[in-house]
Amino acid sequence: MLQIKPILAALKQHKAGTVLIGLQIALTLAIVCNLLFMIHQRMLHVSRPSGVSEESVLTIRNEWARADESNLQALDAADLQLLRRLTGVRDASISYGYPLRNGGYNSSVSNTPSNPNEINVSSRFFTDDHLLPVLDSKLIAGRNFRSDEVAWEREDQMQPAPQVILTESLARKLYPDGSALGKPVYLDGSASPSVVIGIVDRLAGNFPGSWNDAAYGDIVIEPRIVVDKPVTYLISAEPGQLEAITKGAPAALMKLNRLRIIADGTGDADMGVRNFTQVRADAYRDEEGMVKVMAYISIVLLCITAAGIVGLTSFWVGQRRKQIGIRRALGATRGEILSYFLTENLLIGIGAVFFGSLLAGGISLFLSLHFETHRLSVIYLLGGIATLLLLGQCATFGPAWRAAKISPVEATRSG
Amino acid sequence: MFAHYLQLGLRSLRRNPVLTILMVIVMGFGVSASMASYAVFRAVSNDPIPDKSTQLYAVQIDSFGPKNNNGGEPSGELDYLDAMALQRDHKGLRQTPLYPVGLSLLPTEASQMPLRPKTYAVNAEAFPMFEIPFAFGGGWSKDDDRSSAYVAVIGRRLNDRLFRGANSIGKSINLSGHDYRIVGVMDDWDPKPLYMDVLSSNSFGTPIQVFIPLQRALDSHMQTVGSTGCVGSDEGAGWEAFTHSTCTWLLYWVELPTPAQAQAYGHYLYDYASLQQHAGRYPWAPNVRLHDVRQWLKYMHVVSPASEMSLYISCGVLLICLVNTSGLLLAKFMRRSAEIGVRRALGAPRRAIYAQFLMEGVTVGLAGGVLGLLLTVFNLHGIGSVVDKETAALLRLDASLVAWTFTVSVISTLLASFYPTWRAANVQPAWQLKTN
Fold first, then answer.
1. Which of A10, A91, A199, B158 measures 20 to 30 Å from B425, CA to CA?
2. What share of chain A is helix, strand, coil (3-state, %, to 5)?
3. Given CB atoms, is A117 within the 8 Å cutoff of chain B?
4. Closest CB to A190 among B114, B233, B383
5. Which residue from A344, A337, A331 is spatially nearest to A401, judged by alpha carbons?
6. In 10 A of CB B218, how many CB atoms?
């Protein structure tokens, strides 16, 4: 490190180049560590568990297309009966609302009556007593619905159900000081109570949500079937049978009754028949896309910065051939020449990451204010700093190696 | 002189091929990254009705109150009573409440499958107001509105499917058990984003295929299949209770051709809301909004934060590429200090040096533009596979994007060349000649 002083003196002769390399490292650091951090945040977001045994569940969204809508309950019931009897089907349920559905019914939930100001916004699933077995969801307290508690109603006639099942996260928010089991909750500012009869450990809500959502896993499950909404049949397959029933179940439904619509994916709606892998992919498509774009941009930026460093260092080496030759003639070893350029780059890099960190903090602040992202974590900043310093050393190594190979004879040449 | 400098520039670029290729690649990547995100941004922030976007207004009245509204902002939709009152008062040139309904198009033959076309309920004024073009017939009459007639306007796609594109005026379609007489077939009409309803439907999805009279939909107690916002659920059950509640579910659009009319309508809305306050229906002070199409799309965040953010990110990428190119050009130019010294000593003015080196920068910019264009095409394909299919369908390479790519590339390289050129022009001839 004895070389620092002469290096600084030399850098003063190349102010512009130094500033340009430094600026580039600083900007790259600021952008790349924010990008990597956002990638990480989105990965975390996407990989949250849904509470569903995803590998065995099939969803079929069904809309009746009939002139006479008075007997929809009988039609739904016939479908369910058919589905439950199909070979390869373990169980089938009917629901309006299910994990990662990407849309659905949200309401406020309160532990006091007629309180619409409560902000515990939760997903609501309107379903029967088969949903929890189909999703393979674990009750940690209380019991599942009984089939006689399930009511079939039109949407405009619906009232909050007398019994509900909550997810644990919501139960804890409503009754922080003890079990919510047996206690009343009030849906959507209602005056009439719904009693909590069961608590499940974990399920994802209707909306995969924004990046900052607290309500992801807050769900109210009600033994109500909304007959005039596009309901979804959720089917759990016997091991290894998912593929077979993905083809077989819709065909059997169509054979039973043709006056129905199961979306084929050509319209606005998602495909009518989706296994849970597709449900998850549809719910997070934008996020996955952004992750890919950000990763691509990060890699391109790092390459560009490396290229810039190689270019400018090569120029400096070329400019100083004679001086390097003189130093070599005066007894400097190759290692010393090599370490001169590496140290030079390190010094520029250290100065640059200092400004880059400030800039990264600024960008993070801007993004968190405008786009509600999380604030950059220090670990990512440190990781970014290490990456860029290392990148600088690697990029410098090539030109520096060439410099080290300059023969002392160069000192005697003119030009 | 221009051609001469261009020639010099090209020759100089050939002299250090590695450095040149590096600069071109860097510019190409920078430009293509910013162009690809610009293309996405342009697609999603499109003005869907350019000649009228400052004359159509979305109306909002706060029916939730300061405790329950969205941070002071009213719901994007109106409740039934407000929408009906505004329609009755009829203060603008044209206006319509609208909402999406879920009707099934039932097959007439056993071999056909039922369909669920995208259907909206509007009144007759919607057709001239939204400039909906017709291939056959037209909108229904005001009498049809009043008598809540079973009439329908269908889209071209649906007409192609049902009637093989023939004039179907006077024929009927069966929607959920009722025959509707077709009075008009729309020509291709697919505003993107679908600004009338950005709340309930995919703004970049398939076009609306059926319109039916609003009064018909209301008289048949058709529920909205779009978004509904309610505060408290104790309004009771059934259609009557729902329409008398403060649940918001009707979008409301009004056409106000001049700013003066828009201002007058704003006053009218305020007065209407304060009347409601005095009548005790809304105990809070008037809280109303009037947004034209562009303001509305911004207000409703139709441009996703992701695409806005990627625009910022790509500007950052371009900036880095600029700094990079600047550094590389500096290296390149300064390596030729001797040459510059000789030229200056032989009498070349500074201006000539400026011209020559800026020209060299432009050459790099043009080459970067060509590469950038290729990469943009590649990027658009890449983005097409990561965004939803509706947005991907809007991404296209047109003349304006090509022009933009070259403009951005050349201008940014010019910017990047300024400092290196200035340094080159300031080379001291005497010093250069002496040392060499």
1. A10
2. 50, 15, 30
3. yes
4. B233
5. A337
6. 19
> Are A23 and B323 an interchain contact pair (Cβ–Cβ within 8 Å)?
yes
Residue A192: which of A119, A118, A128, A112 has the closest Cα?
A112
CB < 8 Å to A35, chain B: 313
Residues of A in contact with B232 (CB under 8 A): 114, 116, 188-190
C-alpha dihedral, B423 to B425 to B431 to B433, nearest 10°: 130
Strand stretches in B193-287, DSSP E: 210-213, 248-255
Q: Number of C-alpha atoms within 13 angstroms, CB side, residue A140?
A: 13
At what angle are helices B80-89 and B259-279 packed, to 10 degrees?
130
pTM of the shown model: 0.83
Q: Is B294 helix (H, G, I), strand (E, B) or coil?
A: helix
Domains of chain B, by residue range, sit at 2-45+305-435, 56-299
Each residue of B388-424: pLDDT tens digit? 667 777 777 788 888 989 899 999 999 999 999 998 8
Residues A225, A230, A234, A235: what is their CA dihedral angle, to the nearest 10 degrees?
110
Q: What is residue B63's three-state secondary structure?
A: coil
| Of A191, A260, A294, Cβ closest to residue B234 | A191
Residues B87 and B259: beta-carbon distance below 8 Å: no
pLDDT tens figures, A144-202: 999 999 999 888 788 889 999 999 999 998 998 888 999 999 888 788 899 999 999 99
Closest to A311 (Cβ–Cβ): which among B239, B306, B331? B331
Q: Which residues contact A313 (CB under 8 A, 6 or more apart)?
A: A341, A345, A395, A396, A399, A400
A383 CB near a chain B CB, below 8 Å?
Answer: no
User: In Å, how far is A105's CA from the nearest CA of chain B?
Assistant: 10
Helices in B300-398 by DSSP H: which ranges?
305-334, 337-345, 350-384, 389-394
